């Protein structure tokens, strides 16, 4: 971990300046909310969540009026309530997901979904901590979360996690949708009342997390991985604090989230007529498979079949 006195001094000065602290906290929450709404819109392509998306966006508008860090956190919390309500609405009842907003923020994982989310956030924390340490920030001094008042609390780590939590949320949702994770993959421990993974499921989920964090996104003219994005954003943050840059933005780069199992496509597959099927050159056996998959919780379409389905008017694959 490099020791950069100028950066740490600038970080402490910014944290002591109410205006700077508010501006940075707002920037972090703005990015978190933008990604949260994007995840909800991604879910809404498959599920009926139009009302939930609208309510989350309505709460998000109040961020503009926030004049203190406490007010910023309040807006973040209200958006989070709507977000987790929508997230839980599309999960099977058997998972018994009751949300994240409890007194313990579900650190004890009282259901399989929270166990997966906690594990994913732990993975994210490691990536964020590495980016922070690489640049030489003081991890105990935060802007959105209170500055550390005990040794193990690293407030800046929690701050920088916020714009990237969507990576875990999306991965967990896809894992449960696809069946990579399910109720039998977890066991409940009576001694501490927590849900825990079995070893094979944990490995599968870890691989999904790595795949997500290693996926590419275009940023400033080149394709970079999300773990690299974190380092780039911390470098930009350092330049902002040391007055080498005049602006700070955590909303970019924005991912492109698109489902190929959306409601429109499912409806189109299920309503294909024999003449349309023949015109698209789709075999009866392939159509049977497509219809079977279209009635399942989650499915993917690849290669030639995807290109054929793109010929259906108003359908995007």
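Q: What amino acid sequence fits the structure above?
A:
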């Amino acid at each position: 971990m490099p020791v950069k006195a100028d950066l740490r001094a600038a970080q402490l000065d910014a944290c002591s300046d109410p205006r700077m602290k508010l501006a940075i906290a707002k920037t972090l929450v703005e990015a978190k909310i933008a990604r949260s709404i994007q995840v909800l819109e991604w879910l809404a392509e498959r599920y009926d969540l139009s009302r939930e998306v609208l309510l989350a966006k309505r709460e998000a508008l109040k961020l503009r009026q926030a004049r203190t860090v406490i007010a910023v956190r309040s807006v973040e919390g209200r958006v989070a309530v709507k977000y987790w309500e929508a997230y839980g609405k599309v999960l099977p009842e058997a998972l018994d997901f009751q949300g994240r907003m409890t007194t313990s923020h579900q650190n004890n994982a009282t259901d399989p979904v929270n166990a997966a989310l906690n594990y994913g956030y732990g993975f994210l924390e490691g990536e964020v901590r590495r980016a922070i340490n690489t640049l030489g920030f003081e991890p105990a001094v935060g802007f959105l979360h209170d500055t550390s008042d005990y040794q193990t609390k690293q407030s800046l780590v929690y701050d920088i996690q916020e714009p990237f939590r969507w990576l875990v949320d999306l991965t967990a949702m896809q894992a449960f949708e696809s069946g990579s994770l399910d109720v039998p993959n977890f066991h409940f421990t009576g001694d501490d009342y927590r849900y825990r993974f079995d070893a094979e499921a944990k490995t599968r989920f870890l691989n999904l997390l790595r795949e997500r964090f290693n996926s590419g996104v275009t940023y400033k003219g080149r394709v970079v991985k999300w773990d690299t994005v974190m380092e780039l954003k911390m470098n930009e943050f350092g330049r902002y604090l040391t007055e080498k840059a005049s602006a700070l933005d955590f909303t970019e780069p924005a991912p492109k989230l698109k489902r190929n199992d959306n409601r429109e496509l499912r409806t189109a597959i299920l309503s294909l007529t024999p003449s349309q099927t023949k015109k698209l050159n789709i075999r009866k056996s392939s159509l049977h498979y497509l219809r079977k998959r279209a009635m399942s919780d989650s499915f993917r379409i690849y290669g030639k079949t995807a290109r054929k389905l793109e010929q259906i008017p108003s359908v995007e694959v």
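Q: And what stands out in the fold?
A: The longest strand covers residues 186-189.
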